[in-house]
Amino acid sequence: MESAGNVLSAALLCCALLTRDFSRHPDSFFLNCAVGILLYNDLKGSLKRFCGWDNWPCVVETSINDKELALFGGGGFSLTPKQFDTQLFSILFNKVDLEPDSVFLKRLDDTLRLHKKFSKNSNESSAVVIQRIGDARRTGIRVAPHTCIRESIFAEPRIDHHFQHQEVQETRRSRPYRMTLVDLGCCMGTDLRKLVVDGFPVLDIMGLDIENRFFDIGRLMYNEGDTPSIKFKQTDALDPLFCERNARLESKFDFVHSANVLHLFQTEGQLAFIRSMAFLVKPGGLMWGRQVGLANGPDGAKYKHEEGKGTRFTAGEFKELILDATGWREEDIVYRSGLVAYSELRIVKPGKNWVLQWSVRVPFDKTPGARRITELVE
Ligand SMILES: C[S@@+](CC[C@H](N)C(=O)[O-])C[C@H]1O[C@@H](n2cnc3c(N)ncnc32)[C@H](O)[C@@H]1O
């Protein structure tokens, strides 16, 4: 009875929002009531049905258990009255409330696809997956409260937003030999898992990160079984002894990727990080990545040296940084870049308007750069 009351009150809330006089239109009143009940029981499905919205923020509290979710059932996610209010508020006012126990997903279907591929139980409900993402978020924040973890972005694939993604997959498919890829600063490995879902052989990719607890949190989040998994290795890309400690990885990878890491560092740190990427990549291979960037012009520049933040660069400045770091000449590399709106963020921040996507085709003779890299880290 109590839940029936909650359903009705939420439905009436929807009607009330229309602020219309229904006294002479009881049919409209009951129609709105029915829509309200549908919204309450299956918010996402109903919004898709009525408005065609597929990627609106999904807010699901992970503190409710599976049994409670099953009770409300009905195909989509079922919400408690408090959650319903949060949802409605988010949608109406375009605001996402980052509660500590909540998960916010923009790409729900793509996210669930990753779990279906890696989980030892491919038939598990979406609610169970969301609950595990919530657990990973809570634990991950305690390890390091990166924006991508606080805002649940870590659980969503993003590598396919990069202009280079499709070409990388096509190149790999077209070659008669195996090609390898490493992600530097891979966190829980979501981008790597996306590559696997899109066909990259799991044995040909590797994740590196300074924080090995993220690897375990990732394995738990994806509920991995005994099937061959992605290799992960703990390493500090800024370590002056990076080359010695990773000697076996020198020039090992056709593709060296890094996302949302460089902007954490000041310029000196970024130079060291790029040298580590250059150390890992094969001659003639590809380095590619993305991080918060700057638009050309006076507006962007003021965020460059914001207190406590890493340095941001325009596309042109970043090319110079790569040349500085590696010792390669401009005519020996192919540098491509694009500045795109940072649309994955849940909360808009003035210093994070732009993502700089970039790629560098590495020279076939990378010796001058490699020699300088070794000299510079010694
Ligand atoms: C903001 S997260 C980005 C994670 C992931 N690449 C993504 O795009 O969602 C930054 C990641 O870089 C890692 N990291 C920070 N400093 C690092 C370093 N010196 N060497 C290697 N990884 C580092 C962090 O542990 C974290 O996993």
UniProtKB/TrEMBL annotation:
Keyword annotations of the record: S-adenosyl-L-methionine, Transferase
Coiled coil stretches, renumbered: none
InterPro entries according to UniProt: Meroterpenoid_MTases (IPR051654), Methyltransf_25 (IPR041698), SAM-dependent_MTases_sf (IPR029063)
Keyword Metal-binding: no
One Pfam short name: Methyltransf_25
Pathway(s) where this gene product acts: Secondary metabolite biosynthesis
Protein origin, superkingdom: Eukaryota
Family as reported in the entry's similarity comment: Belongs to the class I-like SAM-binding methyltransferase superfamily.
Official protein name in the record: Methyltransferase domain-containing protein
Native organism: Suillus subaureus
